Amino acid sequence: MTEVTQAPERAKKGDLRRISHWIGGRVTPGESGRVGPVYNPAQGTQTSEVDFATAEEVGQAVAAAKTAFETWRSVSLSQRQDLLFRIRELVHDRLDEIAAILTDEHGKVLSDARGEVQRGLEVIEYACGIPTLLRGHFSEQASTGIDVYSIRQPLGVVAGITPFNFPAMVPMWMWAPAIACGNTFILKPSEKDPSASVYVAELLKEAGLPDGVYNVVHGDKVAVDAILDHPDIAAVSFVGSTPIASYIYKTGTANGKRIQALGGAKNHMVVLPDADIDMAADAAVSAGYGSAGERCMAISAVVAVGDAADPLVDAIGARLPKVKVGPGTDPESEMGPLITREHRDKVASYIDQGREQGATVVADGRETAPDGGGFFLGVSLLDHVTPEMDAYKDEIFGPVLSVVRAETYDDAVRMVNENPYGNGVAIFTRDGGAARQFQFDVQVGMVGINVPIPVPVAYYSFGGWKASLFGDSHIYGPEGINFYTRGKVVTSRWPDPATSRVDLGFPQTR
Ligand code: NAD
Questions:
Q1: Which residue of 234, 467, 471, 502 has the lowest C-beta tally within 10 Å?
Q2: Active site residue 296
Q3: Confidence at residue 7, expressed as pLDDT on a 0 to 100 scale
Q4: Is 309 touching ligand 1 by the criterion CB < 6 Å?
Q5: With 70 as the cut, is the pLDDT of residue 315 above it?
Q6: 190 Cβ inside 6 Å of ligand 1
Q7: What's 108-131 look like in SS3?
Q8: Mutate which of 34, 238, 239, 470 for ligand 1 pocket (most atoms within 8 A of beta carbon)
Q9: 464 lines ligand 1 (CB under 6 A)
């Protein structure tokens, strides 16, 4: 059994790798003197130090991006497309290298890390279609001798602020469409696993992206606030927890910026009595414990309706001893460690709390976590959880899955809709009519029908409802293209000078 209060081993200062900013096409060491620790969560040891930017250093990145924008916005669509194809090839070729960085700093197993890069790659592939995506409309002869057409233009310098749980994919959701649309980009990645963003910067340079189009500033609230306050940043995309998403939205919009801020989640999986119980149990285990539950689309609450509950809990419970927990570099491992010791301890605390508040602990992951200094917690299952318990109310973001029992379909839907979050939801049933009613009833942005993690493909857009999204725009896909551009409508006439005259009346179309 792992002792959940163990302190991580601290490396000697001289052994630590330093992770610096990337500004104007080169590594730019920070000068603030403020740094943050980066760990290998499977070993529980600090491996690196990441520079934390000052407002001035953020300003340097903005200046580089602003200069680059002047030329980047004029680069033809076919040249941008050509470059995006080269980026696509490089990311594809280096997928294993990126995945290894993710496993090293985040802890997720290598197969999952590869999957993350693959899903990010799909967004890059979508962005390769930018000539088609930016096509406007044209109305010939809208009035006599007058044509009207619409174009979409980039915003300028835009920024992205990203969470720890997808250090490669979530930034790709942002920078790929942003630069394809002709913007220049500043990324403030999570300070917990920042290396992938700098490795990708090197790939973009190798592909031929001009200096200053993609920049990385590392840091904490100081860097984030400098982004939100900077007058030359036109828009900010944020993905992270709900309190910070709300702060980013309020502060950014008060400063006149366009904001999309995706927040946290509490994703329900509703299992109706007619569902295939084995299939539902496989899905609950996969979606509840994949990436150690540190996915914004992870299933956190299984809502078992009526008679489904007992067989479902038995079926999930039977699968848990087979889940192999271990270092992400071990090909046998199916679930890696959590991101930090503090987070692991917080997640583990829901097990005792759940028991104290009346839940049944079916599996206690503290008893099955691998020994050693890594931030591991085994798979944990709580049954008879109710909406009043903390395990239900909080996001948790770890491998503690709750089963909530509902008497009827209506009770289950009410529970989903009364929850403050609305990111993802799934229903498991054999009844097409019930599934169709469910998609109509639920107040959630992404719905899975017998699909536990319904992350939309790259040519749709990703986003939740309620406290899972602040702002009007979902991310990537068509809404991502809209977010990173603004429309302009041109009314054009090439008159015969002989017909020109003064007319102070309001322009008529007939
Ligand atoms: P987080 O909110 O702690 O951090 C996200 C970003 O905000 C990081 O870059 C961080 O440096 C910055 N930040 C943190 N505290 C800040 C503060 N006080 N002021 C300004 N900036 C601050 O989130 P996290 O722990 O890195 O990621 C996990 C969370 O992200 C979960 O809640 C998860 O659901 C959510 N998430 C949501 C989605 C989605 O698409 N909706 C996707 C992935 C993750």
A1: 502
A2: yes
A3: 41
A4: no
A5: yes
A6: yes
A7: CCHHHHHHHHHHHHHHHHHHCCHH
A8: 239
A9: yes
DSSP β-bridge partners for residue 487: 152
pLDDT 10s digits, 333-366: 999 999 999 999 999 999 999 999 999 999 999 9
| Residue pair 490/151 in contact by the 8 Å Cβ criterion | yes
State how far the Cα of 68 lies from the Cα of 184, in Å rounded to an integer: 7
19, 133, 198, 296: which one is catalytic? 296
Does residue 267's CB lie within 6 angstroms of at least one atom of ligand 1?
A: no
Residue 507 banded pLDDT, cuts 50, 70, 90: confident
Q: Return the higher-pLDDT residue of 401 and 11.
A: 401
CA atoms within 13 A on the CB side of 101: 22
Q: Give yes or no for a contact between 461 and 260, defined as CB atoms under 8 angstroms apart.
A: no
Residue found under tokens 């619409």:
150
Nearest to 188 by CA among 37, 23, 17, 395: 23
Please give the structure tokens belonging to residue 9.
């081993």
pLDDT tens digits, one per residue of 203-240: 999 999 999 999 999 999 999 999 999 999 999 999 99
Q: What is the mean pLDDT of residues 377-393?
A: 98
Residue 395 CB less than 6 A away from ligand 1: yes
Q: Which of 58, 102, 162, 164 to mutate to test the pocket of ligand 1 (most atoms within 8 A of CB)?
A: 164
The token duo for 44 is: 């529980």
pTM of the model: 0.96
Long-range contacts of 141-148 (CB under 8 A, 24+ apart): 142/491, 142/509, 143/507, 143/508, 143/509, 143/510, 145/493, 145/494, 145/495, 146/491, 146/492, 146/493, 147/491, 147/492, 147/493, 148/489, 148/490, 148/491, 148/492
Q: Helix, strand or coil for residue 17?
A: strand
Backbone angles phi, psi at 71, to 5 degrees: -95, -35
Q: Are 271 and 280 in contact (CB under 8 A)?
A: yes
